[in-house]
Amino acid sequence: MKKYPYVILGCSVAAVAAIEGIRSEDREGRILVVGEEPCRAYGRPLISYYLLGETDLARMDYRPEEFYEEHGADLRLGVRAEAVDPKRKTVTFSDGEKIGYGKLLVATGSRPFDPPIEGIERVKERFSFMTKADALALEKVLSPEKRVLIVGAGLIGLKCFEGIAARVKSAAVVDLADRILPSVLDHTGAEMVQKALEARGAAFYLADAVAKFDGNTAYLKSGKELPFDLLVTAVGVRPNAELVKEAGGEVRRGIAADACGRTSLPDIYAAGDCAESFDAVSGENRVLALLPNANMQGCIAGINMAGGKAKFENAVAFNSIGFFGTHVMTAGVYEGEAYTEHTERSYKALFYKEGVLKGFILINLPERAGIYLKLLRERIPLSEVDFTALKTSPAWSAFPPAVRKRNFAAEV
Amino acid sequence: MKRIYVNEQWCLGCHLCEYECAYANSGIAGMVRALKGKAIHPRLRVEDAGDVHFAVNCRHCTDPVCIKSCISGALTKGKDGVVRIDRQKCVGCLTCVLVCPYGAVLSSPEGHAAMKCQLCTDNGRDMPNCVKYCPNGAIVYEEREAAR
Amino acid sequence: MMDLYIRPDYEVVRNQSRCIACRVCERQCANEVHSFDPETGLMEADEGKCVNCHRCVSLCPTHALKIVKTDDTYRENANWEAQAIHEVYRQANTGGVLLSSMGSPKPYPVFWDKLLINASQVTNPPIDPLREPMETQLYLGKRTAKIERGKDGLLKDTLPPQLKLSVPVLFSAMSYGSISYNAHESLARAAEELGIYYNTGEGGLHRDFYKYGKNTIVQVASGRFGVHKEYLEAAAAIEIKMGQGAKPGIGGHLPGGKISKDVSETRMIPQGVDAISPAPHHDIYSIEDLKQLVDSLKEATEYKKPIIVKIAAVHNAAAIASGIARSGADIIAIDGFRGGTGAAPTRIRDNVGIPIEPALAQIDQRLREEGIRDNVSIIVGGSVRSSADVVKAIALGADACYIGTAALLALGCHLCRSCHTGKCNWGIATQRPDLVKRLNPDLGYKRLVNLVSAWKHEIEEMMGGMGINSLEALRGNRLMLRGIGLSDTELRLLGVRYAGESL
Questions:
Q1: Cβ contacts of residue C365 below 8 Å, gap of 6+?
Q2: C96, C130, C154: which is the final residue of a domain?
Q3: In CA terms, which of A284, A391, C49, C395 is 20 to 30 Å from A347?
Q4: How far is C187 from chain B (nearest CA, A)?
């Protein structure tokens, strides 16, 4: 039986970051990366940009081909891990091979949740929108006479709409919530983005849901009937946590992992969309299924797997996403007092409580937004900065001179 | 590595560096031709707050959060320590803009891609143009230790 | 009311085809000459405010600016020149004494430019300073030590206190107040690095600069500003300022606007109130009185520091110097009437005093004749513009030169002669924090070091050319000079022969 000092399950962003993390500590130990998808790691959010024509398959690679060899990582793609034996420290793969590991990283990601709607299994042209394969499959059937129904007005559903809007006849979006992007936007922000999407032909059916499908017709709870040609479901994801669960590891909403990425099983780590993080803003363990989070978690896990010491202590939820030029940045939670600025084209809402920034929404105001995220992520007491000035425009002049000196007159 | 450092005490807020940056990255020979009658989009910005002025550009962090957050792998740190953006790979999601604590990654005017200071390693200059033309030594290009 | 009479002296010429409206000129002009018109997108200029300091010209990234003297003209009149007419208008406007800054711009003769330096040919070979030793180091002070031995037979040190210089150049007195903190820091750091001295002027010594004490000459002037025991002790030498070349016979006047908190603390005077230095020292009406002050300062500093007495070059300078040489002072500093100032009444600056060259020649001559030349060293200032001026001054009898204007030029001064307005765009003659910061002493001090180092090289070259390898051999060696375009009287006063005249 072959044995690797490091085995990584999943070949996506967390895996790449883990490779980098491992290599920052251990320049020797060979790494095996096993990916179910038959391709090297790519940023999954790119799939909508692919359909939009803003990138192509070649440019989607998260790291260049030579990255893996340069980092001493063997790739085994198109293979699934079937079982983990934490006692014998082995993984069994879908091709039957069993491989031993020194340290194991579970970075298996998540999978789309199939909504249990009557008749859905009989919809012929039904797609999820998560992987390159999903996008390629969808692309094949796109044509100017097709009517698309998207179930779910979250980030995935709407990015899918953006990607295909110009290539289909019409698109309807249904969501149970009374606004679009309910998990990242408030009503004001949602309205703004909704207008931008409607201008590009999206028809929204909000606070509504598909009661049942009958062939190519969706019957909504409100009684409306929506005929369609293609169905995209984007109602949420489920972490791929079964391997760990079956091996006896603790799984809550995702795989339970500490700040070092350790699961409850010895020598087994978890990172990315399958694992929980401690959200520094909300103060609870959550699955933060976000690409940057996967990278940071993966890197920390990698460092710890290789014997280094690192902790991931400032995980926060944030998103930066555009829809037809309307750019949305959000972070944290929307609690406490709010400072808002609203114009025809832009919207800013800063939420602060107990002397710290808790969350923000910035629509079409990307300029220097990172300064707000710094306040949020580092939980900087607002009493230590000129928050009045920061409210109107994020700037370093609002920070004390000593802090500026540390950041601009020294290595960081 | 050599980085750009800001001596806030000596910054006059003249904003010359912004123009020199915009020119150096314009790809056009001759500052007048490059900048006259155009809105400039420099990769560094001078902050003015009363008598306090200082330039802000990419710090080329040791552990750059922009690279970790980039969804397309367009941001990389070279062996020379310079954090660069591959504008062909960039899809313009601006996550890097959202995460840069310095506000030093900028959305470029034509959209589609972010832009940032690459220490003039990508435009044929022998040193960062902002440093070269700072009249008062307020921006310098040198080796320095971390604070603390 | 509209000012009918004063028209702009200069025109700001903007090449609109080059101007990119970056507004750097606007941000950098403390006189608020430039402005941006958002409607036209063009820069404009209010020329009436321009002092021609060239800050905008220097910083304009596209070289779109130049400042030219206006060619607007009054009806031509060789007697009533525009400047004379202008000054009448200004005084009729205000009823005030006209104020000016820096040295007189009037076309008085510059004798340095009428003196030529000798070089060796054939019989007395020149020396290559890059290959052979060349001594530019010197000491300033009395050279009156007598050889005395103790009971043990060893030599006793009877040498009066001396200042050691690596090159015969010192930075002349410029007070903190008249010039900025950063200008002072630049001078102090440069003096330290060069192994020379700078001079506090009558502005006291800022606490931050005590550390440069061994390269500092502190001044005791008629206002006694900033003088206390610690101040005297901090210095390498003490200078009693009796007069200044740019304004002989009058005192000083630092406007309240320049007296910031820091300046007031350093000078030990109230903040924001005009600081008036009286014309005379009220305790000095004779050489004997002067001697008392020299003795007091020596007593206060335990006879460890040389005392310099500085006077303006005036008609009786030689006789006065003779008295000073007998007062116990170690060094005489003479300041010629082309010397600079932070502010002086225009009429005084342009009409009172005499040039440094004849004053120096006459003083050196007089002291030699009286056999007291070794009682004192002589420093001269008042428009020493180059290393050639230094060489000529030493050949005329000086030990070393004070440079003020040249040092300020090295720091960025463009001789706009508006120091008295306190709005120096180059951060030199101002106390406005936003302007002061324009002079970064890290850069400024290096420029001063560069300047003096360059002069040192040139002095070595010229000395080598003369076949002279030490300053000792050059001092007072007037045979190394020849006059050109000078009258017999001028030649006699300078003690030099006419060009072409052999021994």
A1: C318, C397, C495
A2: C96
A3: A284
A4: 17
- Alpha-carbon separation of residue C321 from A254, C328, C483 (angstroms): 95, 12, 25
- CATH code at A120-233: 3.50.50.60
Number of domains in chain C: 2
Domains of chain B in start order, with CATH, are 3-142 (3.30.70.20)
Task: Return the closest-CA partner of residue A399 out of B95, B8, C440, B43.
Answer: B8
Q: For residue B73, give the nearest of A62, A329, A404 by CB distance.
A: A62
- What is the interface pTM, i.e. ipTM, of the complex? 0.95
Do C178 and C249 lie in a common domain? yes
State the CB neighbour count (10 A cutoff) for residue B107: 20
| For testing contact with chain A, the best of B84, B89, B98 (most A CBs within 10 A) | B98
Residues 71-110 of A with CB under 8 A from B: none
d(CA A15, CA B68): 12
Distances (CA, A) of B107 to A60, B84, B118: 20, 14, 15
The pTM score is: 0.92
- Tokens 């000092």: give the residue: A5
Cβ proximity of C467 and C127 under 8 Å: yes
Task: Residues A2-111+237-305: name the CATH superfamily.
Answer: FAD/NAD(P)-binding domain (3.50.50.60)
Where in the sequence of chain A do the CATH 3.50.50.60 domains occur?
Answer: 2-111+237-305, 120-233
Q: Which residues of B touch A320 (CB under 8 A)?
A: 93-95, 97-98
pLDDT band at B147 (very low <50, low <70, confident <90, very high): low
Per-residue pLDDT of chain C (503 residues; tens, 9 = 90+): 778 888 899 999 999 999 999 999 999 999 999 999 999 999 999 999 999 999 999 999 999 999 999 999 999 999 999 999 999 999 999 999 999 999 999 999 999 999 999 999 988 899 999 999 999 999 999 998 788 898 999 998 888 999 999 999 999 999 999 999 999 999 999 999 999 999 999 999 999 999 999 999 999 999 999 999 999 999 999 999 999 999 999 988 888 888 899 999 999 999 989 888 999 999 999 999 999 999 999 999 999 999 999 999 999 999 999 999 999 999 999 999 999 998 899 999 999 999 999 999 999 999 999 999 999 999 999 999 999 999 999 999 999 999 999 999 999 999 999 998 999 999 999 999 999 999 999 999 999 999 999 999 999 999 999 999 999 999 999 999 999 999 999 999 999 999 999 87
C-alpha to C-alpha distance for A175 and A178, rounded to whole angstroms: 8
C155 domain residue, yes or no: no
Q: Provide the CATH number for the domain around residue C60.
A: 3.30.70.20
Report CA torsion sign: B51, B57, B60, B64.
Answer: positive
Query: Is B99's CB within 8 Å of A292's CB?
Result: yes
Q: Are residues C127 and C63 in the same domain?
A: no
C-alpha span between C257 and A200 (Å, rounded): 64
Shared domain for C243 and C305, answered yes or no, is: yes
Chain A interface, best mutation among B93, B115, B141, B144, by max A CB count within 10 A: B93
C28–B14: do the CB atoms touch at under 8 Å? yes
Q: Is the pLDDT of residue A314 over 90?
A: no
Q: Name the DSSP letter for residue A108.
A: -
Contact by Cβ (8 Å): C57, C67:
yes
Domain that holds residue C340: 121-139+173-492
- Residues of chain B found within 8 Å of residue C434, distances taken between Cβ atoms: 12, 51
C41 and C135 both lie in a single domain: no
Domain assignment present for residue C2? The answer is no
| Claim to verify: residue C179 and residue C319 sit in the same structural domain | yes
